[in-house]
Each structure stands twice: as C-alpha cells, then as structure tokens.
Amino acid sequence: PPLSAEHAxxxxxxxxxxxxxxxxxxxxxxxxxxxxxxxxxxxxAFDRAGFDAYDVHMSDLVSGRRSILDFQGLVAxxxxxxxxxxxxxxxxxxxxxxxxxLRADFARFFADPGRFALxxxxxxxxxxxxxxxxxxxxxxxxxxxxxxxxxxxxxxxxRIERSxxxxxxxxxxxxxxxxxxxxxxxxxxxxxxxxxRFEAAGLVAARFVDGRGEIATRYPANxxxxxxxxxxxxxxxxRVTILMPHPERVVRTAQLSWHPPASEGGPWGEESPWIRFxxxxxxxxARQERGDA
Length: 293
Prior knowledge:
alpha/beta; 8 helices; 26% helix; 293 residues; single chain; nine-stranded mixed beta sheet
C-alpha cells in the first residue's frame, strides 16, 4: 500500500509557549566523529526547538577542550564514523570505552536524572555499544547489516508506540513518514530471552509499518529486517532514546518528498509533526527546572 500519515497531537507540548517566552535556552552537545555528516541538520532542529546547540567533535572531548558534563543534553549524530569499517558505530564507541576519563564522564552523564541523550543512525549504533554505561540499557540490541545488503536511503513509515521515551511523549499512535539512510540498521538480540525481556519492558518507541499501519516485517516497508519492525528504543526512565531513521531531516514539511494531501489530514504547515519530537526535549527540561518531572 502507498505511504500514509496520521497524527492527533499538537506540534508544541503543553506549556512550551511559556518556556519560550522566558527565553531560556539550555545547552546541547551536537556530538560527531570522523565521517559523521548529520550534525548541521541536527543542530538546526534543536535550535528550532529552543536549545543552544554546540558543535562538539570527539577530538574536543579527548583533548579536554570540552567536557560532555558541560551540557544538559547530547545527541550522537548520523553518518559513517570511521567509514563503518570497524563495525556500525563500534569504532566511535571504543574511542570512549577505551579512555578511562571519557568513559567516566559519559557514565556520569547517563546516570544524571537531569540530563538526556539521543542517538540517530550511526549515533544510534554508537550508543548501543555504550549500553554498559547507560542505566536500563542492558537489553538493548546491537545493529547489524541490513538483510537487503545495500544502504537503504529513502522515505519510510513508522508508527509511534507507547513507551517512556521523553522525546516521543504525546506522540503515541501516530503514523509518520521519515527519512532512512543506513546500511547497518537491523536490530539483533543476543538470544530470544534478551528480546523477550526488552519487549516486555515496553522499551520499543517506534516501529516500521506499512501504509495500513500494520507492523512491517518484510522488505521494503521494513528497510533493514529488524524484528517486528522495531527501529526506536529507549530505557525505563525515557531519558535516552536511540533510533535508526532521521527525524532531524524532516522537521520542515518542505524536507519531505511526500506528505499527506488535504484529503488525508494535510496540508501540513511550515513545520512537520516531527518538530514535536525535539520540542518534547525542551519541555522535559523545563519540568526538570521546575522540579515537577
């Protein structure tokens, strides 16, 4: 069936206009490594959502010019770190895991209940390797080569699931088009018990679906072969979210190669429904500031 879309949520979460009126802009590290190429779009999305976005290269952290602990949020961006020759996101993760000081800083960051993190595409793969440092990520899968073999780069369709992810708050049940661009996006669990624990915990935040909204288990609606279409994952408190598709590439309606016509819930305005994903982060931090999270 053809692409379709459906959502019933507002583009701004409750209370966000008041937050914007105060003019406070929390800091977020737009984290990249050699080969990463999605940092500009990611910075633009978070800037639009009310953040001060800082370009942070891994060399900044290694040299001590920057500390990840200077930021309230971090996002590991998409691309092809080390050309993926060391495994999908694996080389990037090892540059943290094999440096004692960096490993300690990232562990402190992930343990802080007032901070959040996002990983997209290559950044999703990288954070999955950092699971030992992330409370609640023990059963996250790793990401292997697409079953289709080549890189898949096109528009796909996802359904937002009920999960604790702070970034998907209020978006449950929506069916939205989103860009994918990856060669190693297939979620792989070590054994069936690991997958069963993960699913039972309700930590799948989004799945690939077909035009009818049914879970995509076959190509091409499922572009990589992930079990039950799972493509966005989180942890029990929802502060860390990883996903294969690229929400930062579709925050403006003009960025989409397809969006629904007026007869099917459109036309969408300047901003697509994906802007809610980024504004949810700003709203969550505002609640932290008020102490009512």
